Amino acid sequence: MSEIGWVSIHRKIRDCVIWDCDEPFDRRSAWIDLILMANHEDKRILFNGNPMTVKTGQRITSMRKLADRWHWSREKVKRYLDMLEGEEMIVKECDTQKTLITIVNYENYQSEHYSDKPPKSHQKATDKSTDEPQKSHRQVLNNNENNENNENKRIYGEFHHVRLTDQEHEKLLQEYGSKTDDLIRYLDEYIEMKGYKAKNHYLCIKKWVVSAVKEKKGKKGFNAGEGSSDADEFIRMMEGKA
Question: pLDDT tens, 146-165?
């Protein structure tokens, strides 16, 4: 019986000396590696000079590359991928140039990050859930419904991650004054560092970014119209919350 709960694994785990060694992978490690290799969002690429979209949960590779990566024979890689496909864990599409692997139900491995709720590191023990019934992960996180229309939103932040409509930005300015830039900076840098994803950045700022900043800085000094903090302070805040 599988246990319920989360263990968050960052892709940088592959940079450690234990991962990058000459020992052959076992089947469990190869499965984790496939999940880590998969795109966490849709990406437009050029493949052999032709543009194509590699979708969330997919990865373009080859039997040869996986064999080199896992220190296996190509025959063993093929048998392993065939086994995963038979267990409905992946779908693979092969041709003479590439192997496209799709992780089935990839959102189930990433669902905590596809939410307007704060990261768990920002939630207080005293937080209470709202009266609105929580939707299932499949309802909220279905990739086919996660393509938000951003045509009417402007991009903010040094790393260009925060998206707000003019009306949302104006509301933040009215409520938080010059601190609005600090809040946007915090969310923008958090997304850059953590890969955090949410459908509505305005709600993120309202629901947890303000609280996270206040928690570190104290409620004094966060009144509208006061000067903003420097970026280094926000990075220290985020690292302290990791």
Answer: 444 455 788 888 888 899 99
d(CA 55, CA 58): 5
Both tokens of residue 113?
A: 């990050």
Phi, psi of 155 (to 5 degrees): -100, 135
| Domains, in order of start, for the chain | 11-107 (1.10.10.10), 149-242 (no CATH)
CA dist 236 and 242 (Å) reads 10
pLDDT digits (tens, 9 = 90+) for 91-141: 999 988 899 999 998 888 775 544 445 555 555 443 444 444 444 434 433
Query: Confidence band (pLDDT; 50, 70, 90) for 211?
Result: confident
pTM for this one? 0.46
Distance CA 89, CA 76 (A): 17
Cβ neighbors of 203 (< 8 A, separation 6 or more) are: 116
Closest CA to 59 of 27, 19, 87, 99: 99
Distances (CA, A) of 39 to 30, 66, 75, 157: 16, 16, 25, 23
